[in-house]
Structures are given as C-alpha cells and as structure tokens.
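Deliverable D5.2: sample structural annotation.
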Amino acid sequence: MQGIANTQAAEAWNGWEGVNWAQNAARYNATVTAFNDELFQAAAIGEDDRVLDVGCGTGQITLLAARQASQGHVVGIDISEPMLERARADAAEQGIANIEFEQGDAQVHPFPDGGFDVAISRGGLMFFADLVAAFANLRRGLRSGGRLVFMGPQGGTPDSDYARATAALKPLLHEPSPAARGMGSLVEPERIHEVLDAAGYADVSITPVKALMDYGRDAADAAEFILSQGPARFNLKDVDQAVVEQAREELRAGLVPYETSNGVLITGAVWLVEASQP
C-alpha cells in the first residue's frame, strides 16, 4: 500500500474490526442492500464506463458495478486488506474479470488524473481525517463532467426505530470503536455541501433515502449480530458478564417488534449525494 494519511483508520480496519467485517460480509451487506437500487439509479453507470468504488470493503457494490460496466473497468479501493481479500475471492468465484481491488488510502492515493467516469461509495467516505483533501483527491481522478455518487448515514435521533430497538445498549456505549471513528462526520447536509464546495465539486444535490435494513433471522439472531459488531464489542469488553447478559436479553426484547417473515427489518435513513467534476 502506498502512502497513508489516515494511520488510525488503517490500523483499525486492518485489525480485528476489519477481520470481523470480512468474516461476516453477508451479514453486514444484508443491512444495507436495500439501498443499492437508489445508489445505482443515481450513478447511471454505462457499459463502457470506468468506475471507482471508494471504501469498497468486501466488494458487493464493486461487483455489481462491474456487471453494469460490462465493457468498461471497475476499481475498488479500501484501506482494509482483510476486506479486500474477501472481495478478490468473490470476484474470482463469480468470474468477473473487468475489476481490480487496490489497498490504499483514498485521501492521498495517486489516482490517474481524469481516469474515471464515475466514482461511487456506499458508506465509505466518512472516515477521512481531512475530508476536503480526500474529496479533492477523488475529484482529480474524475474526468471533466465525471460524477460522484455516494451514500452516508443521516444523524440518528432518539425516536428512530433503531434507537428504540437498541435502547438497552445506549447506556453501555460510551465511545466509538476504533473503526467507527468519523462515522458522524457527514451526517449534516450543510457539512456535506461545505466539504464538496471546498473540494471543487459542482452540481451538488443531497436526497434523503429510507430503506428497511435486515439485521437477522429473528430477534435473538439480530441481537447476537449487533453485539458482535465493533462498537458493542469494544465498549462491552470489560463490562461485567451479568450486565452484558441482561443487556442481551433486553436488546432481544427490543428487537421483537421488528420481526417479520423476512427477518428483523428496521428502517434506516441515509443521504444520497450527487456531485460532478466541473
């Protein structure tokens, strides 16, 4: 991997949290797959396009983009080697050849000037230490008129479905896990506009999108999944086991109202952001 500006993120995503995501890729993808159609509709990837997927993780979006750009080429970049190993394995298993995965820090990675028609990301653009520098670097990688389309979380509210379902954990989650630091850096539309304007983009639009996020087969399964995620594991590692078990049961009970015949489905909200290289 070439130069790294985000050393803390690199350490975190190449540590136990990155391994956890790679080993449980299907579970993590299930929570956000319902947002894919909106992302790809906005990206409008053509069959000859050159596409960059930023913060590609285990590659679900990258692989879908490669199928749309069937005569083009797709590059997925991520700082996490454990997640990229999973992405490469899936690409090989699916026989997708017009794709490559690079380990790198997109804030400083030497993308070819004007090398891409479209840059996309599903939740991978919030973690940069210098957001303006990162987005400016991505813009330099887009051709004139090239498009940036990405999704990021909206700010959570105390009355959201997820907050109500997971209320039992709130008193125990005192700080973000190492890989989650920066998660809230782009939750406000005003901040998104500020960053993209400073980075030199044009035609910025921000659209709210809601979708049902799948957390597991039933309440017990969903509770185990949420407790296995980085923020819970990090904050609960030194908590008395009796307290953890009580939180587990209360969490399961909180998830019961969201059980459906298709799993535990909780409404999530993201921002769909579109911009262009002037």
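Annotation notes: The chain has a mean pLDDT of 97. DSSP finds twelve helices and eight strands in the chain.
The annotation will be released with the project's public dataset once the embargo ends.
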